[in-house]
Amino acid sequence: MAEVLVYVDHVDGAVRKPTLELLTLARRIGEPVAVALGSGAENTAAALAEHGAVKVLTHDASEYADYLVVPKVDALQAAVAAVSPAAVLVPSSAEGKEIAARLALRIGSGIITDAVDLEAGDEGPVATQSVFAASFTTKTRVSKGTPVITVKPNSAAVEAAPAAGAVEALAVTFSAQATGTKVTGRTPRESTGRPELTEAAIVVSGGRGVNGAENFAIIEALADSLGAAVGASRAAVDAGWYPHTNQVGQTGKSVSPQLYIANGISGAIQHRAGMQTSKTIVAVNKDAEAPIFDLVDYGVVGDLFDVVPQLTEEINTRKG
Ligand SMILES: Cc1cc2nc3c(=O)[nH]c(=O)nc-3n(C[C@H](O)[C@H](O)[C@H](O)COP(=O)(O)OP(=O)(O)OC[C@H]3O[C@@H](n4cnc5c(N)ncnc54)[C@H](O)[C@@H]3O)c2cc1C
Questions:
Q1: Closest by CA position to 173, among listed 55, 277, 77, 50
Q2: 155 in helix, strand or coil?
Q3: Around Cβ 240, how many Cβ atoms within 10 Å?
Q4: C-alpha distances in Å from residue 67, one per residue of 64, 169, 183, 215
Q5: Rg of the chain's alpha carbons, rounded to an integer?
Q6: Geometric angle at alpha carbon 236, from 132 and 186, rounded to 5°
Q7: Partners of 259 in beta bridges
Q8: Tens digits of per-residue pLDDT, 189-221?
Q9: Residues with CB under 6 A from ligand 1
């Protein structure tokens, strides 16, 4: 069976969930071979093996932390040369997409970005993408070279499938460009204790209807009852009620959670562009004609200041 390379996103050996989702998808098209780089790479092996990696190729060098993406591209290119895979899968983060694009260029392959699903096809893997502000769903296949595909977080449910996960050292020679852009400083972001917006399984968002920075406490309380991330519309962000890092939409972040709850958000096309691929969409809006109701699975016509606290209380009660 053909091998499929999966680029591992990890923090000091702790594998992030989108990588485990990639392993689930990789198993549909071949045998997953994981590529883990940098500090703690070997510590990823147990989690990767548990989720189907037959092999884990590892390499550690200070270049991975000290410079931007090129050392990682060099390593992935070395892995492609060593394995001759049927495809290379990379998480669809900003960094992942840059790595994937550079790799595809290096190896003369086609690339598909932001896939939301993946299946085996007669002539290679077929990716599903949601395009033009999510108004079309397309099926796409790379027609040249080894397909390089980035997949959005939450595109597949993580499934355990124990495999050997044999750790092998990857031989990497860094290119002249590897040390072109040095990281000169790092400032850790203050943790909110909530999941990362683009990776969260549940996102609770607030818009202009929240009517003030202080009222976002209501949105945060609902998010915390569900273990969710908090998002915001551009109107709420532009008003200074919530940080830009939490903006969902065309000029903000693109999210694809299992559950998206929009509160006081009208559903403008630019907002939809960032959340329309969410699996289940719920909206609370006092205007029954709001366009958001055209795409919801469940809609509540009501005042969010009545509805949201009641919902939070009910969830907390049921959690016991
Ligand atoms: C180039 C460009 C890029 C853009 N990028 C983005 C983007 O990335 N993300 C984004 O979100 N927008 C983006 N926008 C802006 C977008 O067009 C909308 O203006 C914005 O999404 C509106 O935000 P909103 O839904 O919060 O506000 P509004 O459209 O004002 O809607 C507020 C909603 O809240 C409801 N409401 C009010 N009070 C309550 C209450 N008490 N209870 C319940 N409901 C209530 C109202 O009925 C209304 O439907 C972009 C625009 C442009 C031109």
A1: 77
A2: coil
A3: 10
A4: 6, 21, 5, 41
A5: 21
A6: 85
A7: 202, 280
A8: 888 899 999 989 999 999 999 999 999 999 999
A9: 207-209, 233-236, 247-252, 264-266, 268, 270-271, 274, 284-287, 290, 303-305
